[in-house]
Structures are given as structure tokens and as C-alpha cells.
Amino acid sequence: MNIENTKAQMRKGVLEFCILSVLKKQDAYTSEILETLKNAKLLVVEGTIYPLLTRLKNDGLLTYRWEESTSGPPRKYYGLTDEGQNFLNELDGTWTELSNAVNLITNQKTES
């Protein structure tokens, strides 16, 4: 079994939640989102994030706007819709339950 593949699948499983969480405080453009994920040690490449942002937008969870940039072309800023905020709230509750369950299971002492 390939451990790197398993690790990648685990990261993919939480990527939507992490992206929505990045956008809960303020709108951001793709490079800012990638930088925030990178700083948290969740390495994601542009080829992964663009389709995901598009899907989240098409699902009504994100909106975007264009803003002029002083250092290049206009930037597309993403933000949460009301539906996206509700979705994030649901994911947050689910994450807490799942995280608690995984911690409970993985930290159990084996009895001899």
C-alpha cells in the first residue's frame, strides 16, 4: 500500500473545509488561500485548488468579485455566501465530532 497516496487522500478529504474556513473571516484571492494553507503545512497546488473553487462557486457556497491590482492583472477575490457560511457551520460541527472520535480511538491504551 502506498502511504503517500493515503496521506494525499486524507488531505483532500478536509480541503473543502479548510478553504471555506480560510474565507470565513474575509474574502481572499487564490494566492492568499494557497499561502494560508501552505503556512498551515497543508500543501496544495494551483491545479487542485482552481477546480475546487469553481465547484464551490457553482454549488452556491462561494461568490467572487474582480479587483484591480497595482502589481499585475485584476484579481478574483472569493468569499462565502450565506449558504456557504451555513455549510461551513455544519462542517465545523461534523469535524469536531469526527476529530473527537478519531482522537478517542487512536489514543486508546491497549489492555493486556
UniProtKB/TrEMBL annotation:
A Pfam family of this chain: PadR
InterPro entries: ArsR-like_HTH (IPR011991), Metal_resp_DNA-bind_regulator (IPR052509), Tscrpt_reg_PadR_N (IPR005149), WH-like_DNA-bd_sf (IPR036388), WH_DNA-bd_sf (IPR036390)
Residue ranges of every copy of the Transcription regulator PadR N-terminal domain listed in the record: 19-89
UniProt name for this protein: PadR family transcriptional regulator
Organism: Flavobacterium flavipallidum
Lineage: Bacteria, Pseudomonadati, Bacteroidota, Flavobacteriia, Flavobacteriales
